[in-house]
Amino acid sequence: MVDAGLSIHLQGKSKHLQLMHQSAALCYRIKQGRPEVLLITTRKSHRWIIPKGWLIDGLTPSQTATQEAWEEAGVKGKCSADLLGRFTYLKNFPGKGPVLCLVDVFPLYVRSIVSDFPERDERKRKWVSPKKAASRVNFPELSRLLRELGPVLH
């Protein structure tokens, strides 16, 4: 597992924040012998991220990641129950303030991708190398996880 740790900019703030858990799918494929990961845009700010969401009652964290990958990216595949890594970020809720989100990341080997999926009108998708993905995401810990990813997926 790649543990990206708590980034410096969050360390001082984390003592006073509510902690909420999410699951994410690091969707990947092997193309010409090299791993590629699927990035999607966020709905509001259109920043690049991986599919993620709040834990779903009745599903395990890896099953939640699989469901989020379908809803947000239109992919189906085999999601490992083994944690690949984790990252944290601050999420602001209007009127409530910030919470610290701890995101568990599970690798999902993509077997199929479709154009008709629940959030197709709200997001863009792009396949990129892990190195390129690391430079496009806006979360330092996720970026670190992606930079260290190559050997794990091969």
* Total helical segments: 5
What structural class do helix, strand and pairing data support? alpha+beta
Query: Percent of residues in beta strands?
Result: 35-45%
Q: Main sheet?
A: 9 strands, mixed
CATH fold-level label: Nucleoside Triphosphate Pyrophosphohydrolase
The number of domains: 1
CATH superfamily: Nucleoside Triphosphate Pyrophosphohydrolase
Q: How many beta-strand runs?
A: 9
Radius of gyration: 15 Å
The CATH C-level name is Alpha Beta
What sort of overall outline do the alpha carbons produce when their principal axes are compared? Answer: globular
CATH architectural group: Alpha-Beta Complex
Helical content (DSSP H or I, runs of 4+):
10-25%
Q: What would a concise description of this structure say?
A:
The protein has a single domain, classed as Nucleoside Triphosphate Pyrophosphohydrolase. It contains 5 helices and 9 strands; from the N terminus they run E-H-E-E-E-E-H-E-E-E-E-H-H-H.
What does this structure look like?
By secondary structure, the chain is an alpha+beta fold. The protein has a single domain (2-153), classed as Nucleoside Triphosphate Pyrophosphohydrolase. 23% of the residues lie in helices and 41% in strands. It is built from five helices and nine strands. The protein has helices at 8-11, 61-73, 130-136, 140-147, 150-153; strands at residues 2-3, 19-31, 34-41, 48-49, 52-54, 75-79, 85-93, 97-113, 125-128. Helix 3 packs antiparallel against helix 4. The radius of gyration is 15 Å and the shape is globular. The mean pLDDT is 90.
